Amino acid sequence: AVVQIIPTTPFDGQKPGTSGLRKKVKVFAQPHYLENFVQSIFDSLSDFAGQTLVVGGDGRYHNRVAIQTILHMAAANGFGRVLVGQGGILSTPAASCVIRKHQAYGGIILSASHNPGGPDEDFGIKYNIGAGGPAPESITDAIYLRTQTIDSYKILPAEAVDLDVIGSQTLGGMVVEVIDPVADYADLMASLFDFDAIGAMLRDGAFRMRFDAMHAVTGPYATRILEGMLGAPAGTVINGTPLEDFGGGHPDPNLVYAHDLVAEMFGANAPDFGAASDGDGDRNMILGGNFFVTPSDSLAVLAANATLCPGYAAGLKGIARSMPTSRAADLVAARLGIPAWETPTGWKFFGTLLDAGKATLCGEESFGTGSDHVREKDGLWAVLMWLNVLACRREPVSAIVTAHWADYGRTYYSRHDYEAIDSAAAECLMAHLRSEGPKLAGQVLEGFTVAACDDFAYTDPVDGSVSTKQGVRLMFTDGSRVVFRLSGTGTAGATLRVYLERHEPNPALHQQDTQQALAPLIAIAQQVADIRGRSGRDAPTVIT
Length: 544
Ligand code: VG1
Ligand code: CO
Fold this sequence. Notes:
- The protein has 544 residues and is of the alpha/beta class.
- Helix 2 (33-43) packs across helix 3, helix 7 crosses helix 13 and helix 10 runs parallel beside helix 11 (328-336).
- The termini are far apart.
- Alpha-D-glucose-1-phosphate-6-vanadate binds next to loops.
- Cobalt (II) ion (CO) binds next to loops.
- It is an enzyme of class 5 (isomerase).
């Protein structure tokens, strides 16, 4: 077959957000829409002729169609080889693992993460670099620029590739290798954690766990690793078959959407440990019996216990967290005498720190935790790290976390999301905070004195790149914070996120309800941003 050059015209709005380009399936399914974006990726890269590209997705509706297009375009653009997960499946962390292990040039991941899937729901695409992580802003900016001028794309007209049979095929001059999506990732996990100790705990009958794959991509990974390699009883993994529409749910591992798991973990005779992951397998929620571990606390507890795991026995080089994530992990870093880094929201900002050996663990409040083993956050990795810690300590999750609070103080933390509000109203709210916020310095609000208010800007300590307007921070003299930012992953209107944080050193005050403990800060957020007036909403859509 001969490469075809197809004329096209630009589409508006192909700007990658926090984690790639996310739009409704109906937008992606328009003729040339995906092709324009993929060609813009290739046009923003250089020297990839004959190189290897990794391709896979979370299995949502449109995944297979999109992968066929990408394979035919990769062949037309001169890639030498593509590694694609069987059935078009690769979790986001597994894709990162495969890119690194096989020294690929880069990879394309198809996912809209925790957003619902199906013909009327969301789809997404992002490019990852050879180090395995999401493309930095220099590349995503170039891609966006290219989408605005693109006038043609290259594609090889050839039959569809069989994605279901493991092995090699050719597509024009390019080799397509359909790979087992789990194998490389499972090997990496076995190299980091004490599988003997975890397996012994899972098999002895006294310890019970449940993992909710939410009908999303981690089903095959969790089933193979937990029930297969570690010998957990069959049925440990629930909702373990990936479905194109995730069974109609939001594959978002939080207390609102992981309802099957939450019902069991907060019911009578609750298992000892519960966990869930999201659509593309990079998020995690950790639960004990009748106990929720906030993602910010999870990062801190894992950091404090990391040396119990073989892969981290030598200690941590540093801990990085996104700006809105609570500062619980900073306290652990200080105790360990290692650096604590604060980056903008989105995993792409951790890459340079990990590559430079400045950080080992990273985390985000949005149920994201990971390490230098790959360059994405990694849901099942976090679950295995918790299991390794539990296998060593043999204490309930709640006891480990409350002991951590007694030691370091408890950081009460919550995020309030106002989803799908009017975009103009949301921009107006942020503009108001940017101009009026700094004037609050020195004022006393609800008994809290404002130390400073700014719009977070970040200079990457490794490559010097600068990212501005990353969220308005209202900081108080006691260390409490209220942070406001707009989501960069939504596909309808704007989503306002309000992050609330207060450190409580006194163990006698560690058993409060989180929303009660944060009530004065919630009131301050309302007062300074007039959320009700500007958004027209009386209450947040989701509280995590
Ligand atoms: C959200 C989270 C952010 C996370 C991003 C991608 O972004 O807040 O912490 O990195 O999703 O996660 P935003 O811009 O909507 O706040 V995933 O699991 O969707 O790749
Ligand atoms: Co995700």
